[in-house]
């Protein structure tokens, strides 16, 4: 149960979280189905899909790391206090996993279906490469001190999202 120790609030928290998961997840399927029926991705913004995949991958790294890693959770408690609730719930991990998988399927559709001469722009490729280079540099900065909370917080930062979409 959550730190506030209230069953009605916990139930509300769970209901709203899974409702958000369902609402956001449903939004992916019309494009996926349209691509499948047409066997074409003409008109789809490839840049958007690539940037969206980068964004959701970073969100998954943040969510899964904070939700599953006891080391990162301990770093979180040391920084914010042991009475605080971890700000990631199961529905957050489920959504980010779902978003990465569905976006990966759409990327696969881009590879196999008629593209009509469309392609990912050079600027998008440059942005994605810069974002992941930034991540690699931050990883090497976090290694010596084991600053894993700091590292995953980068994946949730506004700076990262400004580049990733």
Which term fits the overall shape? flat
Q: Show unreliable segments.
A: none
Integer-rounded radius of gyration = 18 Å
The count of helical stretches stands at 8
Compute the average pLDDT.
90
How many individual β-strands? Answer: 0
- Helical coverage, percent range: over 70%
Oligomerization state: single chain
Q: Give the end-to-end Cα distance, rounded to a whole number of Å.
A: 34 Å
Could you describe the largest sheet, including whether it forms a barrel? none
Number of domains: 1
Overall structural class, as computed from helix and strand content, comes to mainly alpha
* % residues in beta strands: under 5%
Query: What is the H/E string?
Result: HHHHHHHH
Protein name: Cystinosin homolog
Pfam families: PQ-loop
Membrane topology: Multi-pass membrane protein
GO molecular function: L-cystine transmembrane transporter activity
Provide a short characterization of the protein structure:
The protein has helices spanning 7-26, 29-38, 46-68, 70-80, 90-112, 122-142, 148-155, 158-164.
Q: How does this structure look, described?
A:
- By secondary structure, this protein is mainly alpha-helical.
- It is 75% helix and 0% strand.
- It has one domain.
- It has helices at 7-26, 29-38, 46-68, 70-80, 90-112, 122-142, 148-155, 158-164.
- Helix 1 runs parallel beside helix 5, helix 3 crosses helix 4 (70-80) and helix 3 packs antiparallel against helix 7 (148-155).
- The longest helix has 23 residues, at 46-68.
- The radius of gyration is 18 Å and the shape is flat.
- It starts with 6 loop residues before the first helix and ends with a helix.
- The mean pLDDT is 90.
- Keywords: Lysosome, Membrane, Repeat, Transmembrane, Transmembrane helix, Transport.
């Amino acid at each position: 149960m959550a730190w506030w120790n209230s069953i009605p609030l916990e139930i509300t928290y769970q209901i709203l979280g899974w409702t958000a998961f369902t609402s956001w997840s449903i939004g992916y399927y019309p494009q996926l189905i349209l691509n499948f029926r047409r066997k074409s991705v003409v008109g789809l913004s490839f840049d958007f899909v690539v940037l969206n995949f980068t964004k959701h991958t970073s969100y998954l790294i943040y969510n899964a790391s904070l939700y599953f890693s006891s080391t990162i959770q301990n770093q979180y408690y040391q920084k914010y206090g042991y009475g605080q609730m971890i700000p990631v719930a199961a529905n957050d991990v489920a959504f980010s996993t779902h978003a990465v998988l569905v976006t990966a399927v759409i990327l696969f559709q881009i590879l196999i279906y008629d593209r009509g001469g469309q392609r990912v722009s050079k600027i998008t490729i440059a942005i994605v490469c810069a974002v992941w280079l930034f991540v690699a540099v931050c990883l090497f900065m976090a290694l010596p001190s084991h600053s894993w909370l700091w590292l995953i917080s980068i994946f949730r930062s506004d700076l990262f999202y400004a580049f990733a979409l």
